[in-house]
Amino acid sequence: MEKVPHLRRRIDEIDEKILLLLKDRIEVSKLIGKIKRENAVPIRDPKREDEKYRHIMQMASELGLALDDVRNIYKIIMAMSIHAQESS
Length: 88
Fold this sequence. Notes:
Radius of gyration: 16 Å
Number of domains: 1
CATH architecture: Up-down Bundle
Mean pLDDT: 96
CATH superfamily: Chorismate mutase
Number of strands: 0
């Protein structure tokens, strides 16, 4: 049991990194949205979204992660990015 606090601290550190990476992703998405609006390009790009999901699912499979869970997480991440592009 003495290892649990140490492992929990590691989880906390990982969570902080995940949040920082999400923030970076949203900031980049905002820039992309601005460029798309300036060039009258639609925010949504179904082809890009499909390619992204295929790549993520392939990588998740290679890493031995639960595909349904990763798919659900990425649906939320993609929705966040689309929202950031629309509102930037």
